[in-house]
Write a structure and sequence with these properties.
The complex is a heterodimer. By secondary structure, chain A is an alpha+beta fold. Chain A has helices spanning 38-45, 91-105, 124-131, 134-142, 144-154; strands at 68-71, 76-81, 111-116. Chain B has 52 helices and no strands. Helix content of chain B is 69%, strand content 0%. Classes of the chains: A alpha+beta, B mainly alpha. The interface between A and B is large, with 43 and 49 residues. Chain A: It comes from Linnemannia schmuckeri.
Chain lengths: 174, 1015
Amino acid sequence: MTTLINQNPIIYEASAGHSTREWREEDDDENSADAIDAQEIFDLIRSISDPEHPLSLEQLNVTQRDHIQVSDENNSVLVEFTPTIPHCSMATLIGLCIRVRLLRCLPSRFKVDISVRKGTHQSEHAVNKQLNDKERVAAALENSHLLEVVNQCLATATSGGVVANIVKGPAIVN
Amino acid sequence: MDRLISTYILAQTDSQEQADAAIEDIVKATALLSTTLATLDQSKVNASAVTVLVEFYCDRLTDQACVPELLKGLLALSKFDKFTSVDCIKSVKAILALVNVQTYQQTARHYVFLFFESVIKRYSQTDLKAISSDFVFGFIQCLDGEKDPRNLMLAFTLIKNIIQEFDIAQHVEDLFEVTFCYFPITFRPPPDDPYGITSEHLKVGLRDCLAATPYFAKFALPLLLEKLSSSSGSAKKDSMETIAACAPVYGSSALTPYAEELWSGLQNEIFHATGDELEQVALNTLQVITTELSMGVSLGGSNDPVEKFLRPIISDCMTQLQKPEMKLAKPSGKILKACAMASDPACTAITLATIPTLLSQYTSSDQSTRKKALLDVLLDFLEASKVLYGSAGKPTEHDTDFVTPLLTFKDRFFELFTNALLSSNEYNALRLAGVKGLHGMILLREFLSETEISYAIQYFVRIILEDPDVELQETALSSLSSLALIMPGVVRSMALPSFFEMLPTSQNDMDVDTVVQKKSPEYILNAVTKIGAEPTLFADVVPQILEKLDLVANDFSSTHATYPIALLTTLLVLLRSKAAQGHSDLPQYLDNLVPRLIGLCIYPTVSLDDGDSVMKNSEILEVVAGITRVVMIHVDTRAQQEFVKAIFRFFVSEDLSTLAMIKDTAQHVTFTPLRHDSRVSQQNTCVLFSTVIDGCRQQTVLPVDNLQQFTGSLVDVAIKTSNVTQRTALSKAVATILNKYNKGGVMENFIGQTLIPELHNIIRQEQAAFETREAALIMYTWITKAMVLSTSTIGYDMTGELMSIFSVPRLGKIAADGFNLVIGEQRDVLTKESFAVLRLLYKQRFFNHCVPVLVKGFESSADEVRHNFLIALSHVLRNIPKQVLLTELPPLLPMLVHSLSFPDPELKASTIETFQIITKDAPDLMAEHLSTLTPLLISLTSAKDPANTMKVRSAALKCLGAQPKSLPFTALRPYKAQVLKELEKCLDDCKRVVRREAVECRSQWFTLNGSIASA
């Protein structure tokens, strides 16, 4: 059995895979535009699996909605993530997964910055540099083994982001 | 027969003289004889013939070429009644001595095993016992080296039988070796295996052998432990399941020496589980072992085998639980739970060893996540206790002498969970654990006192009514709802009154200021629907709701209908869930509840001033209709008959004298709901009238003199009235009558000669008012539906007529949409449960009848009419069972593709949905049309065209996204780059729902071959 970097991580409550976003009236309106916001980005990345454990990034508290900043008008996104332990060698891989997920899911007009949250990793600077260097990211994805690992982590990613049902009154169920 | 044998023997002697030249002939002759024996009526063969034959066959076994056929013959003989025990011994000895089984082909070996099976069944008790040792030994020899799964399946049953029937003491080790060598089974059946033997069959067969005797214990356990550390998941699982199966047979004394190793092997599977399934198997195995060890004879105090086994387990788990918020704490809890569930001694030992520590850990910890994790472990203990010592409210199959050791800690538990639950500023998950804990304690048999249960239920109520957190509310509510079934008494006295107290009783109560602190009445009523279905509780709910309704019926205006609607909906939801659970108390509500509600609806419509009243609200009428329906369809014909009479007195005879409320009112206008010129509020109550007709059983007679005349008058009113509600209600009533009371076609003349010409006339009258023509068309459509459901030929004629209306301006579209009504299922009218006549396969028949006509019509019509044909077709396709759809689809595809270019969003979306079904269920068909469809679907995802509403865009993306999962890679590859590229635009769609579909769709295409394209 291979030894894990972090054998026994802390597990946090995740909101059962569905978005905490509530339904609004304008969601049904053809003409009202819904801006891309932090919740939407969070829903895109929360269910990515950790490379080491069969747990989501949300469950490991690696990603949090409050650590995402979005400006739809300025086309910018900043995602900060928190490795489970400061010497986590998986940090770059996790960052890469987030990077690829957002590359695939966000309009290309966005400039996406991904970084380790300040003070949560030993080699914070190096990791950040790698993650935001376009060429290094592209090179990493040329590596078919690495790509497969990334795709595996992303396989669970789509379970997030469904609008939660809210009960208003006694609902008739047939 | 005799002649055949003698001929054969003769031929035999002859041929032997002619040397070996005729070996083939001998084999053939043997085969002939054996086949004859296998198919022969055995009464034709006398005892001496059997003996001669057995002797002959046994002697011949030396002739290797004939052995397979000889074995077949012996097998046949062994089934004969006259096959004696002497014959049996003789043939068994001969086979064991003369046949080297494993040198023959599979069929021959199969005969040997079948022969053994046959003789063991008949003679094991008596005669074979005498040669027991030889037989077992010989059998082992026969089996040694066997590889064929068919033979093994048979052999495994034989081994089990032999172990049970014979004395194997001399040969335990040999028998074990020849059995265990197959473990773990790695067999994988070939594709399209005709024998249907799976590796699971073999595993279970082998497992039964290994678990057949305690003699195997000392050989099996070390080997099974060894396999447990294997790297293959399936071998591990098999080992664990086998250990679990063997443990009860091998017994405590055999297990004890391996206790430590078992734990160290199993803990790996739990702490570092690779999957939920393996973990569960490991836990289960652990539990079985613990149970078994608990039955071991105690050698006094601490040497008790189960205590010895549990000691390292407890200590390992407690080490992990020192850091309860970490990942390994949860499995530790599960392990303790599994062991505690095993037996009373185990549970007591574990409880006493762990709970005090856990409790003090809890007290000394100030970290919420840690506290929560500790409570989770306590929850595991509650669950274990429930399984082992029985749950409240259920007739117990458990030994009532034992009480759970948790009883010692009851007060502490209650305090901890209560505090966790009530600390309102705490971490939510901790409070949730509190709710679950109290719930778990209530569920334990003879655990909490009644006072404590009352307290706990009050806490739940408080959470539901006062707490702002949704998840907590839901958990508390679902606890309460499950308790309502087990202990309705407490819920009735402790919970229900608090809910009803919170409900407003007047318009003033609804004012924002007072509501702001409290939960909305809708919320509270929703909670009531979750707990009130149990009969005694429901009996309490009904008067409470009626009381509130009485108060608001006078006080509220029709614009403030939300609250009364919620009150009535509560009743409806509860009645429906009662119906679904098969409660028997439904009929009684037809006597009091339903007439009372109908009265409440009628009353304001006959007041002198026809003033504003909430009970006139159309949604209220719908809900009351729903209540009427669900109760009505659950009563018998006699009760229905009474009820229908009363309702017809109100609606048809226009006589309200029997309505309780009216009696007290001196002045009121007459009630004339079935007229086209009466008060609108009265006309609207026709909804109730048509529901009552819909709820009638076919045997219930409508109290009118002439049903056809009555129906005709309803049709008349429906066409003359300008009130849409009344018109729809009456159309439904007419359709129901014509469908239900048309036994033997008694109505068909009336329909064909009176109704159809009349309606037809109005529809075609170009100078008549459009509204009248529309009304006639709608009535026509409803009648068509009634006839199509009962597959009457009139229905198909009428369908054809509907299609001819497609070309009539303005009416054409309505007629096309009418197809949805005709073939679509209605929730509230003409359904199976409301006793409508629905013939078998009516949808298929309708489909087969009208699709060709629709296609032909489409081809021969002008462009502006074609649209209507497509709409009608899409309604038909949407409502047709999938199997029919898929077989009939290919010729329709061009038409469907065509309909994607019409600017009608509804039509587009519905067609795309059809394509999605095709993608999933007929991928080959879809693959053929990719070159046309893919560009079309892509263009439909563009928001630039206003006809591509978000529904269309989402549907198109969903359809594209379904392709990678269903269609072959080779078919899709040419489109991959294009799809990914084009859909990039959808990532920036202005609607979030569309973006979500785009993301989902693209990620499906990205992983199409595991490589990344344009990213």
